Amino acid sequence: MEQVKKKAWSRFVQEGALDEARLNRRIIESWAFCKKAGVDPYCGKGSILLSVEELQQKKQQNEQLLEVAAPILNKLEKSLRHTDSMLLLIDPEGFILKANGPENTLKYAKNINFTEGGRWTEELVGTNAIGTALQTNEPITVHGAEHYAIASQNWVCSAAPVRDEQGNLLGVLDVSSRLDSCAHEHTLFAVVASAYAIEHEWQKRLKDEEIYLLSLTLQQNHHKRGNNFILLNKQGVAVYIDPSLDDLQKFKNKRVKLENVEKSGFKQTMEVPVYSPDRRNPAGYQVFVVKKADDRKNWRLNCQENFKFSGVKGTSKIFRNVLVKLEKFSNTSVPVHISGETGTGKQVVARAVHDNSSRRKGPFIEVNCGAIPDNLIESELFGYAPGAFTGARKSGMKGKFLLADRGTLFLDEIGEIPETMQVALLKVLDSQRITPVGGEDELQCDVRLVTATNRNLKELVRQGRFREDLFYRLYVCPLILPSLRERGEDIPYFIDDYMKRHNWYMQWPKEILNEWIQFPWPGNVRQLLHVLDRVRILYPEALPEQKVLKEMAEETFIMEALPTQGPHKENTGEPANFRKKTEKEAIVKAIKEAGGRASVAMKKLGMPKSTFYRKLKKYNLS
After folding, report:
1. CATH of domain 2-198
2. DSSP letter at 415?
3. CB under 8 Å, gap of 24 or more: what pairs does 416-422 form?
4. Which CATH superfamily, name and number, covers 576-622?
């Protein structure tokens, strides 16, 4: 039979004549297509082979397909272990993502680039099971001389398409073996069954992710009317549309395209990735829209709740846990201590403690202990009596404790107060009474104390720089704020909040958002807001290309990586490690970009000469 097919092939490529009685209809159609496309029947070696980097990128793009298929492929591979067959998984463009099998078979296939990274379509290599399955969207076995190009005629290949529940092609599963290696009667059945199993698992995972998307939406109260968003799964199908969007309900359970949304009288303002629990890949997207005629100032993303928080809540689990504790702590009168890296929003959280407490109608007084000279901090906190010292007001001055009476006093950078002041503060906490500088009478004050620091108070206690008894008085209800890199999925919400506050609305591509989510942001929220300030000032009408936005973030990254104060980490004894590492990397990068010229590197870093050389010595950089 193989000789008959070989003669039919020779006659077709030489004369264009077909013996339709001896050939499968799909093979005839494919040969005709290949001849018309100009495929060389005497070659057929793969002409496109991806580089290692390009192949890795393709695998990342098809990561979920590879993950879903892996256990099913392993099972199929075990059933083929007594054959010389190779097992392949191919993407919708015909690129081979995965090729497993006996070493001798893989080596033989590599001679014609039939290997990972190769592209195996009809247009490039002629009739073959993979390319023909891609073309027809049907399972097929291509045997020996049925291949259009001679390079593949020593092979028998069985392939089946893998589709999602809408019928869209996810990829192709293929089993290939050398023509004389084994019997092939049941191979196609095994391939089709395995392809179906992959489809079933894909649909199951998709449904699980949709359930996660919807449950997350309900948890965040986004189901309330007026939030103006569409929830898409990763295939772009609308699984939920806010009830207020009456004109868009027709897109429910359908693929949603931006142009169709705009034709319906809406404008997309933002696309926010919603990450699956493993945080590696988006499970879907929230697409926020506004009526084109709406006043954008009235556009609201965050729902209104009884709990008052002026910052960005986001959806990250780590910050939701902080908010849960914050709400519970706010309802008490005991001290709250807030710790976290610089720029994580300690002042905002302190204000929320006050706004949600029984003291919310009283004053909220904030003091930065690190900004007050040691010799003035006592009078700043406790006030002073008339004529207490040279230059004092004749009437005296109320201190912050009295100003905060029946309210909240927020002492930021509490780790910076001198030891003598620590003793005085401890006394006030014990008695709720203060004595102004130069005064004799004790004055009653009713104050709820909130403190904050970006330093590790426990470490300061161990070093003898902070009183242990004061630590226990302040550290009653600790709140540890996560860094921005730990709540990266909240970055789109920070961007949305920034746009609303500045009446500046841009459509942020998901590629940029994903890149920023992975960015380390050592300066945390403050750094992100500085970058947004720069983007808004330089590009008020339209966002620049992705490369420019990346460079703008990296420029700020270098500046934020250089502070002398390390970040706070409650669970580590070396809190400055991250900043030291990023600082060293920034310096090395600047030196390389400057071609080793110190003056140019200093300018790039914005660093004084003395500091620059001190850092070189510190990090053993020559």
Report:
1. 3.30.450.40
2. G
3. 416/369, 416/370, 416/453, 417/369, 417/377, 418/374, 418/377, 419/465, 419/467, 420/378, 421/374, 421/377, 421/378, 421/381, 422/466, 422/467, 422/470
4. Homeodomain-like (1.10.10.60)
For 352-405, give the secondary structure using H, E and C: HHHHCCCCCCCCEEEEEHHHCCCCCHHHHHHEECCCCCCCCCCCCEECHHHHCC
Q: Which pLDDT tens digit goes with each residue over 522-552?
A: 889 999 999 999 999 988 888 888 888 888 8
For residue 263, how many other CB atoms are within 10 A of its CB? 9
Mean pLDDT of 587-613: 74
Provide DSSP, 506-520. ----HHHHHHHHHS-
Place of tokens 């390079």: 151
Domain boundaries, the chain: 2-198, 220-298, 317-480, 484-575, 576-622
In the three-class reduction of DSSP (H, G, I as helix; E, B as strand; rest coil), residue 523 is classed as coil
Q: What is the pLDDT of residues 208-225, one digit of tens each?
A: 888 887 876 666 544 444
Domains 2-198 and 576-622 share a fold: no
DSSP 254-316: SB--HHHHHHTTEEEEEEEEEE-TTSSSEEEEEEEEEETTS-GGG---SPP-SS---S---S-
CA 127 vs CA 121, 140, 177: distances in Å: 8, 11, 16
Rounded Cα–Cα distance for residues 387 and 395 (Å) = 8
pLDDT at position 361 is 93
Task: Enter the tokens of residue 168.
Answer: 């869209």
End-to-end CA distance of the chain: 74
Angle between helices 2-15 and 25-37 (to 10 degrees): 30
Query: Six-digit token pair at 337?
Result: 């201590």
For residues 561 and 564, what is the distance between their CA atoms, to the nearest angstrom? 9
Q: Mean pLDDT for the chain?
A: 85
Q: Which ranges in 102-186 belong to alpha helices (H)?
A: 103-110, 122-125, 129-136
**CATH classification for the domain delimited by 484-575, as one of 1.20.58, 1.10.150, 1.10.238, 1.10.8:** 1.10.8
Using an 8 Å Cβ cutoff, are 187 and 195 in contact? no
Identify the CATH assignment for 317-480 out of 3.40.47.10, 3.40.50.300, 3.40.50.1220, 3.30.2310.20. 3.40.50.300
Backbone angles phi, psi at 100, to 5 degrees: -120, 150
Looking at the whole model, is its pTM more than 0.70? no
